[in-house]
From TrEMBL:
GO molecular function, one term: GTP binding
Amino-acid positions noted as binding GTP 2 in the UniProt annotation, renumbered to this chain: 205-212, 252-256, 317-320
Record carries keyword Nucleotide-binding: yes
Protein name: GTPase Der
Positions that bind GTP 1: 30-37, 77-81, 139-142
Entry keywords, A to Z: GTP-binding, Nucleotide-binding, Repeat, Ribosome biogenesis
GO BP field: ribosome biogenesis
Superkingdom assignment: Bacteria
Length: 455
């Protein structure tokens, strides 16, 4: 590497950064209007979250990537769901519950000017039960005079209240230092303790695509319910289900089975639940209703799973209802609307008739194998050498950026770092990704490509 003009330490660092593996998850929970979204904006350092959104407006995302003091993590923002027919307590509890379930640590936001309310106390009970590390954020402390308000929050019994002004940034750095202390390096519940246990599947898809029908079909009488959080309003529950002679863990099946009728915020609630399930899973089985046009909502769910870096299987359900014409149009729609996951294995099933249920497990296994694939550095560089020689990067401004070498920094999903002499254009990156897939497979998995440019 050194003779190519890269400092070996820089190479080392780049490989480590790119191969970070799954990121730990931080959930930001609390009552409406305490400043959760404002705080999330602060943490991610962008204006991307959605303070000005109206209640109930569908949001694209609930999970964001963030970095503080050189450490990366994900943030789950629960600010989008304001209230619903269940009443404020139940709705705050339910959203907090899903966020806490997915998280490795929690920031609990309280409005220090208002003080602790009964609803806050209810969330404290949930937090105690979950046993996750909690950092208490006493928000809206915009100046020194508010510090006394913050001190009152010791009464919640969650340890030191951290006085913060999410709006102005006051105190957020100190609080984030505490967050990093609370947050494990890697998501324990997802990839640490469970190694060697059953593989984890998230069965996701928009309402009415047939998730609970499919689950009932595959589960039969076999299922074992695990990991119950008793006594809460809506229990996230995982189920062990034997399929194809192997035991799998279907995560958050309670969310699938329970028919939640919400008006305001229902979409947001569904996407929060989906995000939580995806975070806990290794592979996402995305169910799509083949009898209807592929919708923006379907695409959002696909994007969520891709961005989370999970193995992906596409299952087109209700195949029993399709006539020849619909089949024709479906194929066109898949090409135009689902191009971003053209690499995902696909099964055409019917939860009603049981059609092709036996194809589900091989597809899942294929996706997991792609997700775990590791290409030896020698093979990768032989491949890159030939590729670059045969298809050089286009010349820009009289210069031709060249890829010197590369390495696979991590798996689950596969992550590559390429070292180059100049900026590599998006089109050429896509070309490399396509050729990598042709050469090495990677069926059913997103691929991360990062490029380091020699100074
Ligand atoms: P969420 O419902 O918990 O996500 O709350 P938002 O982030 O939407 O904030 C609710 C309101 O409180 C907005 O008008 C914010 O501008 C305001 N707010 C948030 N943080 C602070 C703060 O630190 N100080 C003050 N004074 N206002 C804040
Ligand atoms: P979920 O909201 O995704 O859990 O969807 P459900 O499992 O509740 O199914 C929604 C509706 O679609 C129900 O009326 C099911 O009977 C129906 N349904 C589910 N799978 C199939 C299928 O494969 N074929 C047909 N014809 N209907 C289905």
């Amino acid at each position: 590497a050194a003779e190519e003009g890269f400092d070996p330490e820089e190479v080392e660092g780049a490989i480590e950064a790119a191969g970070h593996g799954p990121l730990p998850v931080l959930a930001v929970v609390g009552r409406p209007n305490v400043g959760k979204s404002t705080l999330v904006n602060r943490i991610i350092g962008r204006r991307e979250a959605v303070v000005e959104d109206k209640p109930g407006v569908t949001r694209d995302r609930v999970t964001y990537e963030a970095e503080w003091a050189g450490r990366r993590f994900k943030v789950v923002d629960t600010g989008g769901w304001e209230q619903d027919v269940l009443g404020i307590d139940a709705s705050v509890a339910a959203q907090a519950e899903y966020a806490i379930e997915a998280a490795d640590a929690v920031v609990f936001v309280v409005d220090a000017k208002v003080g602790a309310t009964d609803t806050d106390e209810a969330v404290v009970r949930l937090l105690r039960k979950a046993g996750k590390p909690v950092v208490l954020c006493a928000n809206k402390v915009d100046g020194p005079s508010g510090e006394a308000d913050a001190a009152y929050l010791w009464s919640l019994g969650l340890g030191e209240p951290h006085p913060v002004s999410a709006l102005h940034g006051r105190g957020t750095g100190d609080m984030l230092d505490k967050v990093l202390e609370a947050l494990p390096e890697a998501p324990a519940q997802t990839f640490g303790t469970a190694v060697g246990g059953p593989r984890r599947i998230a069965l996701i898809g928009r309402p009415n695509v047939g998730k609970s029908s499919l689950l009932n079909k595959v589960a039969g009488e076999e299922r074992v319910v695990v990991n119950e959080l008793a006594g809460t309003t809506r229990d996230p529950v995982d189920e062990l289900i034997e399929l194809g002679g192997v035991t799998w863990k279907f995560v958050d099946t309670a969310g699938i089975r329970k028919r939640v009728h919400l008006q305001q915020g229902a979409d947001y609630y569904a996407s929060l639940r989906t995000a939580a399930a995806v975070e806990k899973a290794e592979v996402a089985v995305i169910l799509i209703d083949a009898s209807e046009s592929i919708s923006v909502q379907d695409q959002r769910i696909v994007t969520m799973a891709v961005e989370a870096g999970r193995a992906i299987v596409l299952a087109f359900n209700k195949w029993d209802t399709l006539d020849e014409e619909r089949r024709y149009y479906l194929e066109r729609e898949i090409e135009t609307e689902l191009g971003q996951v053209a690499w995902a294995p696909r099964v055409n099933v019917s939860a009603r008739t049981g059609r092709h249920m036996e194809k589900l497990v091989p597809a899942i296994e294929t996706a997991l194998a792609g997700w775990e694939t590791r290409v030896p550095t020698g093979r990768l560089n032989a491949f890159l050498g030939e590729l670059v020689a045969a298809h050089p990067h286009p010349i820009r401004g009289g210069k031709q950026p060249r890829i010197l070498f590369g390495t696979q920094a991590g798996t689950k999903p596969p992550r590559f770092v390429l070292f180059a002499t100049g900026f590599i254009e998006a089109g050429y990156r896509r070309f490399i990704e396509r050729r990598l897939r042709e050469e090495f497979g990677f069926e059913g998995t997103p691929i991360h490509l990062s490029v380091r440019v020699r100074e």
